[in-house]
Amino acid sequence: MHQTLTADLHVHSKYSKRPSQWLLQKLGCPESFTEPELIYKTARCKGMDLVTITDHNVIDGALAIGHLPGTFISEEITTYFPEDGCKLHVLAYDITEAQHREIQLLRRNVFELVPWLREQDIVHVLAHPLFAVNERLTIDHLEQCLLLFNTFECNGCRDQLQNEVLQTMLKHLNRPLMEHLADKHDLPPHGPKPWIKGLTGGSDDHSSLNIGSMYTRITDADDSSSFLRRVRAGQGTPHGTPATPQTMAHNLYSIAYQFYKDKSSAADWQKKSEAFRFADAVLDFRNNTPSSLINRMQGFFGRRKTSLYFRFSEPASLQQHIIREAEKVIAGDPALRNCAAGKVRSERQLEKELFRFVATATDHLFAHLGDRILHSAMGANIFDIFHTIGSAGSLYSILSPYFVGYGLFSREQTFGEHCLEVFAPGSVPVRELSVAHFTDTFDDVNGVARTLHRQVRLAKTHEKELTILHCNREETLKGIRGFAPSGSFNVPEYPELNLTYPPFLRILAHCFEARYSMLLAATPGPMGLAALAVSKILGIPIHGTYHTAFPQYVGTLTRDSSLEDMTWKYMAWFYNQMDTVYAPSKATKVELVEHGIEPGRIVVYPRGVDSEQFHPAKANGFYKDRYGIDTPCTMLYAGRVSREKNLDVLAEAFESVIAGGVDAHLVIVGDGPYREEMAARLKNLPVTFTGYLKGDDLSAAFAGADMFVFPSATDTFGNVVLEAMASGLPVIATDQGGPRENITHERTGLIVPAGEHAPLAAAIRSLAENEPLRSWMGAKARASVETRTFDTTFLETWEIFQNEIHPVAEPAPSIYSAA
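and the corresponding structure tokens:
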């Protein structure tokens, strides 16, 4: 009969901390138990036959359980490559106190430490080999580690991919490769078959939350001595569950929480706080006394507050608001109340509930801060803006464990893939370009939203990995990932403009799991800021598209040049954070450069039109049948009905044209805040407002007109201009903005000075009174866009994306491929 021994070989202690009374009772331990003894008892309850504690460069924890059965003294040695200080962690098992003292003298140089461990016949293992402890680990270091060590650890605090990469790397080792590495580094490997490596498992727990998450299993071992002999022989098998970024964040919160609890005592009022009962249950298994973290917060508040105060009073500071929101979130969530009551014991479930709690609470707080910042901006209260942004630092500190966790794990995944490309070429599946396109406008009726919906359809058609991320509602569809907003802000004086606040932590988690190769921000608004933050945390390249002339819109709406200047400064800051900025026109690129955006970042990308939907053949008597319009010349404007489109200039020009005796009819397709005022101004003239049109009606509206008039000077491109040209209409546009670049003056249309009604009226009159000229220009306009299909421009744009994204890994050395 074979005997199997399991051991938790890599776990940390805190030497003398007292565990919680409920846990001591559950495990049947006396109240005098210390933290190392609790670790031992917990590991045994989880099925470990053997337990050792490997603290960093000390053996106090291991000594504290040395009198218990199935234990031996071990430590985790911090050692270094002497040439550059790259740090490694080496696990040394079953050592004596004298050996520990000698290790401390040798550990500064890994090339001195490892030969000594071999001489002393000490079983040693390289812990978490692919984890860059001090951010200096390179492929060269790993190659030397393959020569120095024959046993490697799959670590319970590391990502699953990292452990899988390690095992794949080791399986691809062979004799020629080891001989090549030995020659390259002038370092002989150890043992008769150094290309055959062993594995262990270790929980690497730092907070007493994940003891036994990973462990080592050995068959045919009777005691610790035979167990370690088989570990040395490479017969160990790692088992258990690796960590996630949420695991790391949970541990970081726990370590900080326990530290502050140990430094001070709690007041009676703190014991009544459900928020801190929740923290106690989720972050500290040792005792159920309230946290000294509260005492720390008292330093912020200046005086003590009861739970009742926090729950029902108006917060006077951000710190008070944090406590109040925490109380409200827990009070309204049965699952979180169960956590606070100590009814949830699963580590993974506690991780999920903590994530949900932090995400929900901080969403509410970010919405509160966002409202304050925007109200202050609209009121030009610059000092309050700075004060509020400063207060947001408290939120950053609350979320920082998740930022650290997701950022670290993302870098580890990237490095792991790089290792596979080098050590196991051919084992890495080719990853197609995967783009996450962040937008604040997806359900709106505008050119940007229509373009995004069209891109989703084109991506499916051409089998490209494009996902639109928006913040209108929760939804998960092919090519679309929507998140429920945490709040919203309606801009005064512009009721149709609604800003929604994205649930940032949930978006961060999604992007980590989806492993996008590029982020694309279609907006400098809240979702664009979320994309920028995700990029910085996860290290994903971020590109931006400049669609909308926000500074000009702000200037038009507020009539305040200082606010327009401030918006330009913000835009310059935002787009200068991008790796690449995509401008829809050359004019837009020039404008961006003039306002401080680095020209080397800007790429002009192609835009297309659906030349099948918008086609002269779609003319079907739409205007006469639907609206009774029957005039020699029907003029069309389509787009947002707002003052920043210079529609007041169009209204004045049209008045002049009609006053001059021209028989024409103006049709306005679309809606917006200027519609009522414009309709009132032109109420006695031949003008029809259709509101929003779509589908066949929109196609018929374009094809049934005789000319298209677009007086805007702020559009970066103007999709409607291409749609009009595809419909066979001559276009009148201004000499400012992107639309003019699609028009050949006096061939496919006319270009007039922006903001001047007289030249616009003259251009309208010249076409309205000359039907042959209109027909000739319309035919030339149609011909000029027939090849600019959406499919063609989408694939061209995708190729630009691919060319802008550089591969992370270097080409693999030939020796690895040959081996």
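(Above: one complete record from the training split.) The radius of gyration is 34 Å.
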